[in-house]
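User: structure tokens for this one?
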Amino acid sequence: MTGGVTVTERIKALGYESNKVLAWRVGAAIRNKWEALTGALPAKDLRRKTSGLGSHCMAVYPPKWRADIDATIEKIAAQINADEARQLPLWEKR
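Assistant:
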């Protein structure tokens, strides 16, 4: 899909460090939303891996989904940060 957006592109555009936990959680949430609305999985395109080594198929969404993807990234990143903050005191007590 030419001109489409991917979750990993949006993660980078929003200034988040690219990591698998964030990418997987956001990717699953957006894929599920797409499938619920369309009854099909999103289109995929062969894209370069974020590590730069090789390529793989990535879900590609229409540009009008950018705001939904960005909002999902922000929400899930906040959840991950809150989860990590709750766990930190457990490690500090040792």
